[in-house]
Structures are given as structure tokens and as C-alpha cells.
Amino acid sequence: MGDWWARVRGLPRGHAPSLVVPVWSIVLALLLLGPALAPGYVLSYDMVWVPDLALRADALGTGSGLPRAVPSDAVVAILDEVVPGMVLQKLVLLAALVVGGVGAARLAPPGRLLGALAAVTLWQWNPFVAERLGLGHWPVLLGYAALPWLVVAARRWRTEQRMPAVLPLLVVCASLSASAGLASAAVLLVLATRQEVAHLARVVAVVALANAPWLVAGLLHAGAALSDPAGAAVFALADEGTLPGPLAALGLGGAWNAEVLPGSRTGVAAWVATAVLLALAATGWRTWWQRVGAREGGGLLALWGVGWGLAVLTWAAPNAVGTLAGAVPGAGVVRDGARLLVLCAPLLVSLVAQGAVVLHDRVRRAWPGAAPLVPRVLLAAVLVLWPVTVLPDIAWGLDGPDGPRLQAVDYPTSFEQAHRAVGAAAPGDVLVLPLSSFRAPQWNNGHTVLDPLGRYLGRNHVASDELVVSRVVLAGEDPRVRAAREALARSGPQDRARALARIGIGVVVRDRTAPGGDDDLAVEVAGRRLLETGDLVVTEVLGASPRTSPPGWVAAMAAAWGAWVALLGSAGLVAAARVRRQRRGRSM
Q1: What whole-number distance in Å separates Cα of residue 492 and Cα of residue 242?
Q2: Over the stretch 20-69, which tens digit does the pLDDT of each residue have?
Q3: How much is the pLDDT for 12?
Q4: For residue 550, is the peptide bond before it cis, meaning its omega torsion is within 30 degrees of 0?
Q5: Tens digits of per-residue pLDDT, 298-331?
Q6: Region class of 398: left (phi > 0), else alpha (psi between -120 and 50), else beta
Q7: Can you tell me the mean pLDDT for 360-383?
């Protein structure tokens, strides 16, 4: 009977019913995203989507700036040729929540629907998800969504000594940014490896191939990859109200940006949430350890220790972290302390789901029979829904006093006009003015976003990478930005135009609505005026030659992208081979 019921439900024996878990995950995702799923684009901090993202040099890793959007921008640029950018963004946001939630259910005790639902809720409804959504870190969230699936796939690879066919696709999706790639690499290296050298080499090879684009691009830009030491204190793990950073990190909170901090995390609810988390984790600890065993349990505990320990280090010793980031190329990736907590999620959710099951079973044993059915059902509801009750203000697009932060908006018509004007201009890259990184345009409901104008225009562009956070100015790394700033500092429009042309700038686009952008005299550049609207001015600079990437860089990145594509192709080949073997087995 049990086997027949499992087949009817479409799941292997020992798993929760097949429809309840994904339906619950979808419900939570819809409740969380809300207005973000309406027509339009969601623009919040680093989340910048445009109708048609061009496959620019920066996206391929051969641009002058640090390759922060490699390989994510290239993936989007290819996919939005098939799926419109607006639709693709919503699919990505939904997938990051739903796929992760369904995967989290696989970390719960097998065969226990209560544990599966508790895992789904906590995985999708927590400060980490809310704060990363607010900060626009969608590649991080895709990596986060892949983590529970990677845990399961790593277990299979380690125990069966055969790589699951889906694993290459999982690790590629989990490695669309440097920080996400490091997290996925850590999971595989800790959980999938065995003592055999050959097996370890295969795991390392998969990790290296999946992360090849950003790794190689980072090495090519190593000379410019030193971060401003002052950024460590700015991006460190932060206190949440009266909740100290290390305690906030226990519940996956502590993001540096107060603007995306849910109000409920600044009061008593944050303390209650932390207490409930610790209580459930402690309740489930012993049973969980017995279920997963020392190998996997120790691995998840090690990952949690690395994530929480590094996050707390940024809180306790930001100067030391800043010194490291300023001396070691690429070390700035650890500055964002709360982002490192992604490694803590698998252990935390597994323990809490186990604790919910153990607590419910204790109540059932204490009051057996049909009489206490209603109290048991109520307890089950509380164990599933409590993350929502202590963090209610992230519902409906991170709703706040000024309305939802995740709200779909339309670009001004002037952006499309500028896109056409730039497309008709002479050769040369685009310089976006004023030289400031972030905007808070009225058409985006005043919400802060990384300037989307350069991405919208379709050409290689130069835009400021200098950050101003809490009145602290963090120096950028792009040498072309420094060269453009020096050109603009010249005394007259003609001198500025000639200096810009020498560094390959053929078009200057100025946003009059941004702070400093309405001073025509201060930023005037000689050239042919292609467009002038109330908010944008497009000027063609004559005599410019587009920047060309060094041939060695092009060759290195071609090899990196080839390795990355080969890994994806291997997933298809492995899957096809197994299907053929299964067919031959059935025919015999």
C-alpha cells in the first residue's frame, strides 16, 4: 500500500506528497513578490534589467572594469534574445524562490509533510532572502536556490560514485557571480568529495569549469582588483535594531544596508525569531545527526561555521578585513558579511525542520488518540507559519511605509529615444554622466538603483564605479573611469571632447535628473547633439576609436567560456547516455 501511494503521488518512497510542497512554495513566492510580478521592470540597487541587454565586453569579461556581472550578464544577454527581458526577470525571481523552497523540502526528514513545509517556509521567508531581494542580488539568490539541490546531488555523487546528470546544470546556475560561485564550490568540495584522488579531481574539475568565466576574468583584472579598505566597515555584518550582528546572523540577517532592513527586524520580533530558531534547532539536533550521519552532518556544520564565522569577522574586525581586501586582489568579495551567511542556510533549515517534526511527535505521544487532534493541527500550523508571523512586513514586494520596494515600473520613453540615437552615432563607447553610480529617479518611485542607462543603450559604456555609502566615498577600480574624470576636468568643451575621443569615447549621454547632471556648463562636451529631452542629452564625440580588448584577454576568455559551455554540454551527454542505457535495459 505504501509503495503504491508513493507512486500515485509521483515521489520516491519516503518523500512528502508531490503537490503540496511545490504549491506551498509557489504561494509563498507570490505573496513575497506581489507587485514585482506586474508588467514592468523591478529596479532595486544592483538589480538592473532592461528590455534587451547587449552582449558587451563587460559581460564577456574583457571590459576595463572589474567583472562583477560575469557570467550573469552574458547569460541574460543570450536568454533575452528568446524571452523578453521583462518576462525573464520575473521568471528568474520566481525560480529563485520556488526552486529553492522545493529543494529545501529535500533537506527535511523524509516522509514528513510537516517537516517539508516547515523547511520551505523558513528557506523562502527569512531576512537573507528579503535583504538580498532588496539589494537586487538575484545571482546570489539563484545560487541560494540551488544549494539544497547541490547538497542532495553531492550526497549522491559521494555515495554512488557517479555524478548526477543534473549536477553540472545546478552548479552553473549556482555560479552566476563570484560570491555565489564560491558558495556552491564550498558545498561540493565539502560534501561531494571522497578520499580517492580521482574522485576529488573530478569534483575540482566541475567546480573549476562552472566558475571559469569569472575566475579567468578576475585573474585578467587582478591589477585593478584591490578594493578600498574603507569598504569593509561599510559592508560588514550589521546589528539589527537591538539585536547584535552575531545574533542576527544566526537567523540569516544582518545586511549592511538599513534601507532594505525590514522594520520587524529592529524590534522584539527579531529576538523572538532568534529564540524560536535556536529552540527548534536544539530540539532537532540529536535526531538530525542520527539521520544524516557524521559525514554529511559534519560537512554542513563546517559550512555553517565558515559562513557564520566570516560574517562575524567582518563585524568584529572590519579593519583587518579592509586591510586584506586592500592588499589581496579579489579579497573584497568577503566584505559583505551577511552575504556569506548563504553557507549557513542548509544546516539551519535542516535542523529547524527536524526540530518541528520532533516537537510535533512529542506532543502527539504525550496526548495520544483523536481528542487532541485540533491542538496538534494548530501546533503544526504554528511550526510551519511562524517565520511569516515574525517577519510579516516583507510580504507584497517588501512593503514599507513608502510602498513596496519591489514594484514593477516602466522606463521613460526618452530611454528608448536615446537608445536609437546612440545606435545611429559614429563608432566609440558611451560615457554616462554624471559620474555617480546610483540613481533614485522619480519614475522608479524614488527607490535607489544602480544607474540603468548604460545597460539600456546597448553599447559598451563607461560609468562611475565609485560608491558613496553613508557619506563614505569608496574609490572605484576602473581605469577608464579615472581617465574620463580627468578628461572632464579640462577647461573647455573642445579639450574635453578631444581627451574623451583619445580614450575611445564616441558618445556622451547625460542624465539631467541625476544630482549634478543639470549643470550644462560644468559637463558640456563639444560635438554633434543627437538628442535633447527634458531628462537626457546625447552628444556625439567625433574622432573616437572604440576600445579593443587585448588579444590575450580575448583568447583567455574564449577558453574560459568554452570550458563553461563544455560543462553544460556534458550534462546533456550524460543524461542522454543514461536514457539510452535505460531503454536498452527495458528492451532486454
Answers
A1: 53
A2: 999 999 999 999 999 999 999 999 999 999 999 999 999 999 999 999 99
A3: 47
A4: no
A5: 999 999 999 999 999 999 999 999 999 999 998 8
A6: left
A7: 81
Eight-state DSSP code of residue 228: P
Question: Residue range 160-182: average pLDDT?
Answer: 94
Span 134-161, pLDDT tens digits = 999 999 999 999 999 999 999 999 999 8
Interval 261-275: pLDDT, tens: 999 999 999 999 999
pLDDT at 3: 42
Spatial CB neighbours of 293, under 8 Å, sequence gap ≥ 6: none
- Cβ-based neighbours of 444, under 8 Å, separated by 6 or more: 43, 409
Q: Which three cell numbers stand for residue 465?
A: 564605479
What is the torsional sign of CA 308, 310, 314, 317? Answer: positive
- Percent of the chain at pLDDT > 90 equals 82
Q: Output the nine-digit C-alpha cell for 106.
A: 529535500
Q: Sign (positive/negative) of CA torsion 253, 258, 262, 267? A: positive
Element (H, E) at 473: strand 472-474
Order the strands of the 528-532 sheet from edge to edge.
Answer: 461-462, 429-433, 505-511, 536-540, 528-532
Residue with cell 533537506: 107
Residue 428: Cβ within 10 Å count: 25
Res. 13: pLDDT tops 70 = no
**Element holding 537 (H helix, E strand):** strand 536-540
Handedness of CA 69, 71, 74, 76 (dihedral sign): negative
- Helix 178-191 / helix 268-316 crossing angle, nearest 10 deg: 90
Round the average pLDDT of the chain to a whole number and report it. 92
Cα torsion at 486, 488, 491, 493 (round to 10°)? Answer: 140
DSSP state of 226: P
- Plot region of 329 (φ>0 → left; ψ -120 to 50 → alpha; else → beta): beta
Nearest-angstrom CA–CA distance, 429 and 445? 30
> How far is it, in rounded angstroms, from Cα 346 to Cα 247?
18
Task: Return the H-helix or E-strand segment holding 508.
Answer: strand 505-511
What SS3 state is found at 240? strand
Task: State the Cα–Cα distance between residues 532 and 412, nearest whole angstrom.
Answer: 14
As given in the structure block, the three cell numbers for residue 286 are 540529536
- Identify the CA nearest to 344 among candidates 211, 147, 200, 124: 147
The whole-angstrom separation of Cα 472 and Cα 388 is: 35
3-state secondary structure of 530: strand
Q: How far is residue 567's CA from residue 571's CA, in Å, rounded to a whole number?
A: 7
Radius of gyration, alpha carbons of the chain: 25
Per-residue confidence (pLDDT) for residue 587, from 0 to 100: 62
Scanning the structure block, which residue is given the C-alpha cell 527495458?
586
Phi/psi at 30 (5° precision): -65, -40
Place of cell 535495459: 585
Distance, in Å, from the CA atom of 437 to the CA atom of 224, rounded to the nearest integer, reads 18
